[in-house]
Amino acid sequence: MTRQAQLLPGTLDLLILRAVSLGPLHGYGILLRIGQISGNALLIEQGALYPGLFRLVRQGLLKASWGTSENNRRAKFYELTAAGRKRLREETDNWNRLASAIGAALAAQPQEP
Amino acid sequence: MKGLNSFRFRIATLLRRSRMNAEIEDELRSHIQHRADDLERLGLGRAEAERRARIEFGGYENVKEECREAAGGTLIESVLQDFRFAFRMLRKSPGFALVGIVSLGLGMGLTTTVYSTKWELISRELPAAANARRLVMAEKPVSYYYIQRYRDQKNLFTGVAAFQTGVPFNVILQGDKNAKPERVFGQLVSADYFSVLGVHPQRGRVFSPELDKPGDAPVVVISDRFWRGRLNSSPHAVGQMLRLNGQPATIAGITPRNFNGALSINPAELFVPITVPAALAPELANDVLDQRNAREFLGLMCLAPGVTIESAEAGLDAITRHLDELDPSAPPRADKGRRVTLLLAGTGVPLPPQLKRVLLGFFAVMIGLIMAIACMNLANMLLARGANRRKELAIRLSVGASRFRLIRQMMSEGILLSLLGAVAGFALAYGLGLLKSHFVPPTALPQESDFTPDGQAAIFVLAVAVVCGIGFSLAPALRATKADVTPALKEGPALHLPGYRRLGLRNLLMLAQITGSLMLLLITGFLVLGISRMSAVQTRFDPHSMYLFSFDPVREGYTPEKAQALFEKLPEQLGTISGVRTVALAAQAPFSIEDEDDPIQVTAQDSRIRKSAFEETVGAGYFAALGEPLLAGREFTELDQRSPADGSKILPAVLSQSAARGLFANGNAIGKRVRDARQSYEVVGVTHDLTKGIGVSQSIIYLPLTQHNFARPPADGITIMVRTDAGMDALSGIRREIASVDPQLNIFNVRTLNEELERSRSSERFAVNTYGGIGLFGLVLAAVGLAGVTAYAVAQRRKEIGIRMALGARKAQVLGLVLREAACLVGAGTILGFLGAFALAKMLSALTSVFVDALDIGMDDPRMLIGAPLLLAGVTLLACYMPARSAARIDPLRALREE
User: Fold this and answer.
1) Cα–Cα distance between B293 and B59 in angstroms, integer?
2) Hey, how many other C-beta atoms are within 10 angstroms of the C-beta on B877?
3) pLDDT tens-digit series, residues A81-104
4) DSSP code string of B750-780
5) Fewer CB within 10 Å, N or C, chain A?
6) Alpha-carbon span B150 to B435, nearest angstrom
7) Prediction ipTM score
8) Which residues of B lie inside 8 Å of A (Cβ-Cβ)?
């Protein structure tokens, strides 16, 4: 059973962008998808998601429109804007670079004198 | 077009806001529905699924608000949001809100009272006086001749006026021939008085040197209060005739609203120019305007532009010294001290500039202390609340909520509490003001007694509320939203055992609060004890059996000679009434309390020993009337009363025991000479110390009533004391007797000695109650604060206590654990409080002589020194006993299982 990791601030936005990039979703759907693609290692607090969504909309990285969900209910769907796609690319690159640098540091063996 | 555009924009924003709210609501609801759908699919019933979904979601309102904020909005919108949120939070904890509002309300009520009674009195400029800021006044009265010489100094002053204040007038308004005269207090002023002040009339005219010359028909100027109160705002007031001390005069004008003369602490209703004939005012008799050494007038000066009060004082001092030397009749004075002290006269109470600064500073400190105690309580409570919400706040921070926004939200709670407290406080101050207005202090001169807070005070209390609100909620808000969120998130199942006792912020606050409360308690306690100890008056007879009433025949048209004859005849005549035992006259009521009295310096002629003493002027047989036997010598006789006032004959004087001992040590005082500022006297008798109101110094020098006093009675007239047999009601007999002498004669202020004493005691009782109230306030707050802090500490340490008990700690040990911390705080606070109280008392004594004696007595009283700290300690420990007991009753199993 994978352990649940703590979430660093700012990474939530990244995850939202990633989740939405795979196809337009409503809020609940985004929640489910993040859990899905992380193999249930990342579970977002329900209440934390929505302010993040609104923020991303305000920053112009997502756009929202009302529609009907698969359960036949009214829901607000989000999808990436062009700027959002660009940001996703940049942030993913940054994250990977960071992760490999730290990984390398943690795996380094002490140098022989 | 711009206005319309912005209007449209604002409407659009409002519409947008409600639309936004609705949208957020819809979205969140939709989320919950979807979650419920999933749960339903897992097998739950619809209702149960929805319920579970809602619970899982958590803080619905919080999220909505975060969304709103994330979506953006104007500043006003978000501030209003904050306040609405704060209001909701407060509604959820009514206990906390109530305690907060009560603490703040009490604090701000007291603060407002101090502000509107003391601060405004010494800092508010005279209303309607355009030159208020440049007005100065000489501390001691001088003769009119000097005033005229001062006027010549055009380089120092733009104008110098002369005036006398607290001048009584018997006024009969036109109309009823047989109307009884009313006693009205006003000022005698020189013709340039109003131009020096810069006051313009609201109707008619005020005096001016061109229009008011000696020999003109007498005119007076009335105040707005006189016009409204006694003339019913009659439109025909200007030009109306009235009778002043029996003489006709015309009303020339009305001064503006709220103007009551210079020195407005004794409000004047009437202004009479010194150019009127002497028949109108006994103060002007004997050509007093021409006498070089008649020091009867106060000088009111308007500084010339660019001249400072210090340079004016120096200039005036030089001139006065020069004039003194030229004066052949002035006693030789070799002292090098300042002859002239100038006071800032632009406010209700003239003060020397340094004293004014010091007093303002003192009141600021007092206000600060009161508010600090209230705020510390609030800060502590907010800290506890903040700690309780750490988890929620940590989560919000971790998902990117702006720390600033969270802090602002928490602070809006504090500010809202503060504003509510301000409203409560203002109401309290208003109530106190009304109470005080109803109670009239027993003084001869009317004192400004309207102490209800006004608009300025309201603005003041609002400002205080906002400042305090920010002050006490900033630190807790910062604390609760500290960036280090991980410990908070982890705290759930973990145990937080402090390795060592740190003196946290909360404990410091508590310490400060205990110190402040003890200081307040001690100081007010000192004052209370001191005042009540000093005012015990003991008479040798039943005070119900002495009548006092006052006369002022000279102001009813009697000539000085006729007045003297009347006063000589009256005691005899009254003595013939059956039941009357003794009759005596005096210039003031016996055992009277006059706030304005200052002790004078009395010098023993031979030894040059100087002591301060109070002066009382009494008539023949005064001590016999009071049943006081003399310790040595004799008292005054009718012969003494007939002494001429010109100083040709040495007047006798009677000293009180303290005065005699002070001046002559153990020697015999009889036959020795003493002198005050005016003349020499020969000591003819020594009497016991009779209490004189609020003043430990029992040193009193009694001077005889003479022609001078009969010709010019003091502000409350000559007092006649009639002692009757016990149980007799001789009042009607007295009135008949007086009417038989002169039916027109007006007697006023008829009371028994008992009533007189009661009246003076009520003033002390009021002061005692006020101070006592303030002290109790500090005590209650400290207790509440300590209880709250202890309760919170116990709640925090539940786990620790549970473990200790599970490991075998007994209830008593747990109790001790909790109480020990509180006891340390109380102990430290007591020591600091003592030091602070004594320092403050010393400072107070140095500032105002009014407090000196009360504080001295109070500080020596062991009851206070031991009692006050014990009381504080007892109450505070009791207050934290309850939470401590609940700590001891913690069920260890439950505590350990709790999250």
Assistant:
1) 85
2) 17
3) 999 999 899 989 988 998 899 999
4) EEEHHHHHHHHHHHHHHHHHHHHHHHHHHHH
5) C
6) 44
7) 0.86
8) 23-24, 26-28, 30-31, 33-35, 37, 56-60, 62-63, 66-67, 69-72, 395, 397-401, 486, 489
